Each structure stands twice: as structure tokens, then as C-alpha cells.
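As agreed, record copied across for absentees:
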Amino acid sequence: MDTPSAAPDQLRPWIANYPEGIEWQTDIDLTPVHEQVLAACAKNPSAVALDFLGGTTSFGDLAKQIIAFAGALQSRYGVGKGTRVALMLPNTPFYPIAYYGVLRAGGTVVNCNPLYTVPELSHITANAGADLMVTLDLQQIFEKGEALLEAGHVKSLIVCHFPDALPVAKKVLFSLFKRKDLARPSHSPHAASIVRFSELVGANLTPQAVVIDTHNDIAVQQYTGGTTGIPKGALLTHANIAANVSQIDKWGCGLFYPPSKVVAVLPFFHIFAMTVCMNTPLSNGTPVMMLPRFELKALLDLLTRTRANVLPAVPTLLNAVARADTTRAEQLASLEVAISGGAALPDEVRHAFSKKSRALLAEGYGLTEASPVVCCAALRVPSKPMSIGLPLPGTDIRFVDVDSGRPVGIGENGELQVKGPQVMTGYYENPEASRDAFMDGWLRTGDVGHMDEDGYVFLVDRIKDLIICSGFNVYPRVIEEALMTHPAVEETNVIGVPDDYRGEAPVAYVKLQAGQSATEAELKTFLSDKLNKIEMPKQIIFKDALPKTLIGKLSKKELREEYAQTKAAGK
């Protein structure tokens, strides 16, 4: 257990406004998550732990497979402390088995997004020194693993057979109609370096005991920053990961305990889903309802079938659910709480969702370097609208002036900085980036916002997205929020572009609702009483689709590149 250090409560105005039953200064459980999950498995082995497309895995079976996989990793590959094992898996039962198996063996998990390109995966695996990778035999994913073998970035592949994750009926149908989607690892020119996951688990080997140093042993090396530069490996200790699970658990006031059911449509390889959709519920013996990717019909069918009540999501997913004509209130009737994270939640999405669902919609905030959750709106009672809530138990925050680094007062905008047991130790083999990530021991988030007198946190924008127009700060989120109030606008993303007169100017990209129309002039007229002249977009560009990151967040990177290319071409 770890207890936050004492400090005057006036420095923490949020404490006085904590929901009833939650204490800021509380014991934080630092027991490694794999030990917590295995204890939950032993407590109720017959209960359902995982649901994948209707096929279920009990807690007892989950434990057996975790233990067997850990034993195989140790005996066959020598996995132990310091060994990096890459996981390139979508949401399937294989992911939690592999994840907790690696941790039980003493190794470190290196998450890899299956949708990354081979060069991106090459950087991550080479930088991490992850000689061993666990992946899937779906052709599109397997061929990337095979390319990594070919290039020597990994030395061995453990391949999971996708149909083994399916319930019997779906397995038969897949074998009949989708077999061409499967790779044939035994026919690979690198077959000698490939082994079946089922073979390793089937050996049923017992792992040696491993004594974990929770504060120093790295549980997860999570790569971040790929949209802004070369990805860096954030070093998250067993204590970091366990602390955030404990903090979320306390914040939930029992939400993550049975009979709750948590939906995992966000990918486990992303830090938000890893912690909120997998580690927190499973460590409490709560079942996880998985989908391999987001499809609206599949999600609505899952909610109808399982009656799941907790939905962690990103704003674009909530927007898709709320705006779709096919979404009916009865399909969302089981939902008690939806937790929005990963990006700012537009107020219009909040309102649209509330018309379809009576679930409490709570916005949270975090970053990879904090395992990830820092702040969250209350999960049992309403919070202040447009706020990301209050700091979690044991978490300290402050806001500092972006230029001088001096702390700012209540209500003044500055960079959000964080301290807490969930904060990383630094970046892997990158001392310069590690130094830059901290200021006087505080983790720099790169996000600008302020705290009100009650301790509620409000974010304005990313520092890197700030637009300087004629010397004035313009925040893209302010423009985006204004545009989203127009009934024809479905999605929008605002970037800063070079401007000869103002230095920089905002340009808005807009996707309209299906069947709706609007012109640039109409939208600018609509915005005229909502934005000042400096904030008014220089140009509004309409697109059929806006680029998103691999977890569904709207992405500015591609829009900046597109705009630059268009200008260079003289269009």
C-alpha cells in the first residue's frame, strides 16, 4: 500500500468537493495487477471473465492459461526481468492471457498497434529490444509480424489461431467462409522461428516464482508521441499500473465490481483501454465484454445481448452512437455510465448522447505517462459540465504559466502538471526527453487549462495546437465547440496555418451530417456572434471524412500535411 503525502488542503481545493464516500488521502494498492487478477480468478473461478462475440472464458480458465503461458515463456524463451515481449493483438481473449502471462513470467509488455505500418512497428520493437512478439494469424496482421522477422527486428513469433477465440458456431462459419483471411504460419519461410500459442499453453508448464520490485520493475513500456514525432517508450512500473487501477477503483465507488459488466470496444493496446477496460474490472472479478473493433451495429447488439452497464469510449464513438438514426434508446437502456476519454468531449456530443441514453456521461482525462488517468468527473453523481472533473485520489495537479513556468492562480490558464503514484519513471533510453517531461518533479502534460475555486479542472487545448494570431492566443477547441453547435455539422477539426498578415490563422475542416448542407459563408455568419474576429476561421473546408488516429480520435497531423501540400501546389 502507498499513502499520499500530506499537504495543506487549501492547495487542493478539490478535496472539499469529492463525491461522498471518496477520500483523497487513502491507501493506494500497489499489488501487481497480474497478482490481483489471479487472486480474482481463484476467488470465483466459475464466473465469466471474458466475453468475445458470444464465446466466454471463465476466471478459472483464464488463470490456467495465464499460468501455462507464463511457464512456457520462462522455459522456452527465458523470459524474466528485463525481457521485453511485444504484443500485436486486437481485442481477443488472447490479449489478456498474453499480457498477464508476460507479467507473471517477470517480463515487460510492449504494446504494438496491429494497424501500425511495418516501419512504425520496426522502430518500436527495435528500440525496445523486443525479440519476442505475440500476434494473430489473420493475414493482414501476421504478414507484419513476418516482415519484422524478415528484417531481424524480432527473433521469434508466437501466433494465436483466431478461430480458437470464437464460439463454436462462429468458428465453423469462419472456417467455411473466411478461411482465406487466415495466414499459414507453417508455410512461412521463417516457420522455424514461429510457434503456435496453443502449443505453448497446451504444454501446461508451471512458471517459477518471480519477486516483483513494484517501484522499479517495469510492467509496461508504452510507446507514445507517434503523431508528433518519433514514438518514445514510457516506462510504467508495476506500482504505476497498480496505483492507477486502485485510484480508478476508489473513484468508481463499486462501479467496477460485479454485477457490473464493462464493454471493451476500445483496443487493449491503448493505455486507456488497458487500464479502464481490462485491468480495473478483471482485478475485481468483473467480466469484460470484448469487441475486436468498433462497428455501431456490433456494439448495439453486444449491449442488447449482454446488458453491459459500463462503456469507456472516445468522443467520436459516442458521437457515432448518438447521431445514428438506427440507435434506439432501448439498445442503450442497460448503460449506467459512459466514460469519455482520449480527447476533449464536445458539448454537442454530450447533449446528443443524452437524448439517446439516460446513462451518466463522465469525461475523464489522462496521458500515457500517467498510466493514464489523472482526472475524472464523478462516476455516480453529475459533475460540472465541460469539466474533466477532479484529480483522482492521491493525485496532485498544478497549472503553470506557459512562458515563465510560475504557478498561476485559480481561474488562470496555464500548463497542467501532475504528481502521483501513477506517473512514469521516464522514457526508455531517452534521458533528454525524460528531463523535458518533468519540471521540478512535476510531469508536464502539454495541455492548457485552469482550475476553478472548487478544484474542477477545465482544459482549453494542447500547447502544440495553440494558434498565435497577431500575438493573441487562439485555441482550436473554442472554434470547434462553436462549429459543433450548428445543426448541420457532424465533426470538425481546426488547425493553425501560416498567414502573411497575422503570422498564423485558423482553418476549419468540417464534415456535415448526412443529408445536410451548408456553405462556408453560412457557417461564418453562424459563427459571427460566437467567436471574435481573431478566432474566425480564415477558411472552412468541407470533407466527406476527417482523419482519425487508430483509436478514433480526430487527428490534426494529416490535415496540416494536406493543407501544406495544397498550398505548395498553388491550389
DSSP finds 16 helices and 27 strands in the chain. The mean pLDDT is 94. Residues 59-77 form the longest helix (19 residues).
